[in-house]
Design a protein that fits this description.
By secondary structure, the chain is α/β, with parallel strands linked by helices. The chain is about 50% helix and about 15% strand. The chain contains ten helices and five strands. Strands 2-1-3-4-5 form a five-stranded mixed β-sheet. Helix 3 links the parallel strand 1 and strand 2.
Length: about 210
């Protein structure tokens, strides 16, 4: 018996349903992908990128990691960003966190989680930068949610300062970087209002993070 048979069965049903709705779907999809959007999000299984924004396969390029972190030393993320910007010519990069993020919560706690602590160090740095604001929040859940927002803003800043995005703006390419947070409790996206569409707008992120 095939392992994970139920998943293969689900796959066949899904394929049949899609083909019934659009007989040309897979033949079109197998051609060149031309998404306008890159989603940089959390690996959390409760955050299905395409479903959240109502886009079909082929319409959204996706990179996910624990707590949606963007660091210049992560060659996986940088490779995805470069391919999306320079080859696919996406017009929008959405850094999308989610409220109640387990990675963000772990970063706030003084607990040893092993290897992942090295990754969470990036979020701990954001928490340290804003410890006065965070320490003033009584409820841990509210503190986590605020750090989720601050982390997204910090990662938007990191995206904007990559040479990939800087060069795209320098050559006049249309590219905007956005910061969103998804609500697990209601399915709504929250736009944090930190969209950056050019090099001249980068510094506003520093003002927002230092406010």
């Amino acid at each position: 018996m095939k392992l994970l048979k139920e998943l293969f069965d689900n796959n066949r049903r899904w394929s049949e349903q899609i083909t019934e709705q659009d007989p040309e779907f897979f033949s079109t999809l197998s051609g060149q992908q031309e998404p306008e959007y890159l989603w940089i999000g959390c690996s959390d299984s409760r955050v299905p990128a395409n479903d959240i924004v109502g886009l079909m396969p082929g319409e959204l390029f996706v990179h996910r990691n624990v707590a949606n972190v963007v660091v210049h030393s992560d060659m996986n993320c940088m490779s995805v960003l470069q391919f999306a910007v320079e080859v696919l010519k996406v017009k929008h990069v959405m850094v999308t966190g989610h409220y109640g993020c387990g990675g963000v919560r772990a970063a706030l706690r003084q607990t040893d989680f092993g290897l992942i602590d090295h990754w969470l160090r990036h979020i701990k740095d954001v928490a340290c930068e804003h410890h006065h604001e965070l320490d003033a929040i009584e409820e841990e859940s509210d503190r986590v949610d605020r750090l989720c927002e601050l982390n997204v803003i910090a990662q938007v800043r990191n995206v904007c300062h990559t040479t990939i995005v800087q060069k795209a703006w320098a050559r006049g390419q249309s590219l905007a970087v956005h910061g969103w947070v998804y609500g697990l409790n209601n399915g709504h996206l929250n736009d944090l209002g930190v969209t950056v569409s050019g090099a001249e707008e980068r510094d506003k992120l520093y003002h927002m993070l230092s406010a």
